[in-house]
TrEMBL record:
Organism: Variovorax gossypii
Keywords from the UniProt entry: Methyltransferase, Transferase
Classification via InterPro entries: PCMT, SAM-dependent_MTases_sf
Protein name as annotated: Protein-L-isoaspartate O-methyltransferase
UniProt feature coiled coil, ranges: none
A GO CC term assigned to this protein in UniProt: cytoplasm
Similarity comment text for this entry: Belongs to the methyltransferase superfamily. L-isoaspartyl/D-aspartyl protein methyltransferase family.
Gene Ontology MF: a single term: protein-L-isoaspartate (D-aspartate) O-methyltransferase activity
GO process annotations (BP): methylation
A Pfam family matched in the record: PCMT
């Protein structure tokens, strides 16, 4: 079934009024956001909110932080990672599966880890229904290092952390990039880390945003004296 004109108008407005003004100017990214329909990955109860500049809950509210990031954050992250068609991607925090679909459209292969089994199963089925064949969704805790120790060209943390774990930086190939939202409320920044050699990484922090915590990643000590 073809999308209704109303949905197409909402999608156009999302791209032109939210995403493009947030310095997402890569035409390939903008075209991808027009092609991969965000509403297909949104829970039915929130489908009409798919195109709004807001985070959307993915469950019934019983699990705090289980949300879909706002469209502009997803788009800017995708743009700033500069993913190439031959690259492999690790995503931590599958959520709805929408970001995994975007990553899959840019990369050769995506492994997406989701700690919540309900969300993992739902995202895998949604991706299958939408014909995405190069994304594997795995029910796993992304804070636990992968046992085989693979390396990736790109690692995406689809949520926030207090700091980026060294084991994830070590899982980047030389030339690989990692994106994460780092900090604590009310101040977080997007971090993009590039591994420049076996022992060196370079970090830029180009924009501010906010995101719920990814589960089980280390938090700073809160002892007070």
């Amino acid at each position: 079934m073809n999308p209704t004109p109303t949905l197409e108008r909402l999608r156009f407005n999302m791209i032109e009024q939210q995403i493009r003004p947030w310095d997402v100017l890569d035409n390939d990214i903008l075209e991808l956001l027009a092609e991969i329909h965000r509403e297909d990955y949104v829970p039915d109860a929130h489908r009409t909110l798919s195109f709004f500049d807001m985070e959307l809950p993915l469950l019934d509210g019983s699990v705090p932080g289980e949300i879909m990031l706002s469209p502009k954050v997803e788009a800017r992250t995708l743009q700033d990672l500069h993913i190439q068609k031959h690259e492999t991607v690790l995503e931590i925090g599958t959520g709805s599966g929408f970001m995994a679909a975007l990553l899959g459209a840019r990369a050769a292969q995506v492994l997406s880890l989701e700690i919540n089994p309900v969300l993992a199963a739902r995202a895998a089925e949604t991706l299958r229904q939408n014909g995405v064949t190069n994304v594997e969704v795995r029910n796993a805790d992304g804070a636990v290092p992968l046992p085989s120790g693979p390396s990736f060209d790109v690692i995406v943390l689809s949520g926030s952390v207090a700091r980026i774990p060294q084991n994830l930086l070590g899982s980047l190939k030389v030339g690989g990039r990692l994106s994460a939202i780092v900090g604590e409320e009310p101040m977080m920044r997007a971090h993009f880390v590039t591994r420049t050699s076996e022992s060196k990484w370079e970090t830029i922090q180009p924009w501010d945003t906010m995101a719920p915590r990814l589960l089980n990643f280390p938090e700073p000590s809160r002892f007070s004296f």
